Structures are given as C-alpha cells and as structure tokens.
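Lecture 7 notes: from sequence to structure.

We start with a single chain of 246 residues. Read the sequence below before looking at the structure.
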Amino acid sequence: MTNIWDDVIPEEDLLVYQESGFTGAKVGMGTSPALLIIDVQYRTVGDNKPILQSIRESGYNTSCGERAWAAVHKISEILKVFREKGFPVVYPVVERKDKFDAGRWADKIPGLGSGEIHRVGNKGTEVVAEVAPGERDIVISKRYASAFFGTHLMTQLNLLRADTLIITGCTTSGCVRGTVIDAFSYGFKITVPYDCVYDRSIISHKINLFDMNSKYADVISSEQVVERIKQLPGRLDSAAHAHTVR
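Now the structure, written as tokens:
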C-alpha cells in the first residue's frame, strides 16, 4: 500500500476524486509552524490495551486504547523537535465545568455531556504525561469539535505569527477534522501526521485522512514532519513563547 487509506477507498472513488481535480497536491510548510495537540487526555486515551478492553476496564468510556498510545508516542517525537527549535505548541482540550456546559453533546452523545471524566478537576481532562504542556505552552479550553470555535485560538496564532499548523490528536473524524477545516478556511498551511491522530473507528480514521489529504491538508508521516521541522531555522524570539492560558 502507498497510503494508509488504500485498503478502504474503492477504486471508483479514487477515480472520481482524480477526475474532479481533488488530487491531493502537497502544499508544504511555511517557516513559522505551530503544533496543535488536540484532546490527548486520559479520557480519550485510557489503557494501552485493545480499544474495547480499554473502554470496559480503564474507567474512560471515550478512550481509544492502544491505537491512542501508538499516536501519543509519535506525537512526543514531534513535540521534542518543536521544543528544540523553539516553535510554539498549543493544546486545545475539552474541560467541562458542569452538566450544563455540554451543549448539544448532551443530546447527541450523553456520555460526553454528563460524565465526570470530562469535567475540570478530574484526571480524565489532564493531558497525558508523555506529551504534557510545559510552562510556556498554550492551553486552550474548548467545548466543541473545532479548536477555533468559541475560543481565542486565532488570536494566539496571530500573536505567534504562525503560518503552518501541524495538527495532531483526536479524533481524526471529529475534533481533528473540524479544526483542519477551520484552519484551512483561515488560510493556514496544514499538515496532519497520519500516525499522530487516532479515532474510535478505523474506517472513519482512514476515510477522513483520505478526504482531508484530498481537500485541506498534507497528510504525511510523523517521520517526514520531524525531518521538515529540523530543516527550518529555529525560533527563539519572545513571540514563540506564551504563558499557559485558558
């Protein structure tokens, strides 16, 4: 297989996209990237076990188990080179205050709206230790799929003078995709490392990677991202470092 989605996309669909002009042309990166680590919290990760086992045993019904942990390890490699280069890291995460702070999630997915594991103060909302925020990183509390909706993310990215977003985390078909679409609409260059995002559904994961690569983002490996970031001049000016805010 050439691409991670090759085993799930029908040949006719590939031809339709190609004939329609959705060729997945690569945009590349600018010189001022920011790394987004979306919802990589204990509530979405759980135990390093097969997903159903993690859901049943970890105490986190929204966990993705071993597929999440595989992504966490890859995210940590990108995070390391970002820190070495002095590029900014942003953590959009869900931290609900109470049962009234869930909007339509409470109707559509009751487990996301009412569970204590999604509320501020519960370990479920903490970012996994392996990729946890540092004192100069930006933590943004969000409520819905896109990290841009109802948050100050765009203001922070303007202050950082970011031109490229490396988007990681979960879920591929939900918060990652929602953020990618909004980032594309705001004119950013976007890279999604396919081994740094995860989902509850393998099919949704692969189909959304295929579609995002065709329309909105460069979908490449974490190894390729690391190599490209290493080639950029480091950034150590004050605009690259912000205090932790919510």
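The radius of gyration is 17 Å. Keep this in mind for problem set 3.
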